[in-house]
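Run DUF2750 domain-containing protein through structure prediction, thanks.
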Amino acid sequence: MELRVRMGQSASQAAAFYKEVGSSGKLWTCKDAGGVPAPLKSNGQRAMPFWSSLSRVQKIIDTVSDYRKFEPYELTWSAFVTDWAPGLKKDGLLVGINWSGIYATGYDLDVSDVIANTSYHAKKFT
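Sure, done. The structure for DUF2750 domain-containing protein is below.
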């Protein structure tokens, strides 16, 4: 009997985020003239989305109507940690990682968890 462990879509997207950002040192969000989106989630908190590749964010922009007015925005992992993370914490925002699908959904995590998980993977590549 073969035992198979199935990883959910959000879990596999999170794992890819940590590995890809840890390896490349880059991540993406999206912006328009009003800034970066931070939609209100069903739990009452806001999350700001980030993706581990240009192709991932571009797919959301191309396929999810709420994101069509946005443009990809690249930043370094270092800039995320030093410049963006403090503001996200201060504003009480979660970090949406590698949102996917027709509704652009996925894990929304505390910025400290994203930093810890991604930094762990970055050490594997340094």
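The longest strand covers residues 94-100.
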